[in-house]
Prior knowledge:
Elements: E1 2-6, H1 11-21, E2 26-30, H2 47-62, E3 66-75, H3 96-106, E4 116-126, E5 132-144, E6 160-162, E7 167-168, H4 174-180, H5 182-195
Parallel strand pairs: 1-2
Antiparallel strand pairs: 3-4, 4-5, 5-6, 6-7
Helix pairs in contact: 1-5, 4-5
Amino acid sequence: MKKVIIATRNPGKAREFSALFQPLGYTAETLIDHPEIPDVDETGTTFVENATLKATAVAKALHCPVLADDSGLSVDALDGRPGVYSARYAGLEKDTAKNNQKLLDELAGIPDNERTAHYTCVLVISNADGKRVKTYEATWEGTILTAPRGENGFGYDPLFYVPEYKKTAAELEPSVKDAISHRGRAIQQLADDLKKGAFAE
Length: 201
C-alpha cells in the first residue's frame, strides 16, 4: 500500500485523513509519527498560505512529497471569524472547549437566522523539493447552535449544525461526515486526480 505524509498533529484530522485515503490504497502518516519535525509557524493570513507553509516546510524536512491541510470555521455574523485562527481562537494553547465557549460568547444574542457559517478546507501538495504543485479547496455550509450537541468529530463540530441532516457535525456518523464535509469534498477532488494518475511517480 502506498503512503501519504500529512502535515498535521491533530488526532481528529489524522483519523479523518486515514479513513478517506484508505479506500484509495494509501496509508496516511502524520506528524504524530514524526515527532522530530518541529511545528510550523502558521503566519499566513489565508488558508492557502498556511497550508502552503506547512506542506513546503515538512516536505523539505522529510525530503518527500507532503500534503498539508489548513481549515477552519468562518461565521458570517462575526465577519468571517475565527477563520484562519480557528484552532487558536481562545489562545495559543489550542483549547477546543475554550474556543467553542468564546464562539458562543461572541454570538450571544444573535438570532438563529443570522448564525450562518461555513467550514473551509484547503489542501496543498508539495513535492520533495518543497515546491507547491497543487491546491484544492472546498467548503461546508451550516449554522451555529447555542449549545453543543454530539460526541463525534472535533473542533467546532458540536456547534456546527447541518440543516439537511438535522444534526450537528458531531452527531453525524463518521462515514457520513467524511462524505459531505469540507475535508471530504477537498479530498474527493484530490482522489479524482489520483485516479487519473496526476501524481504518479
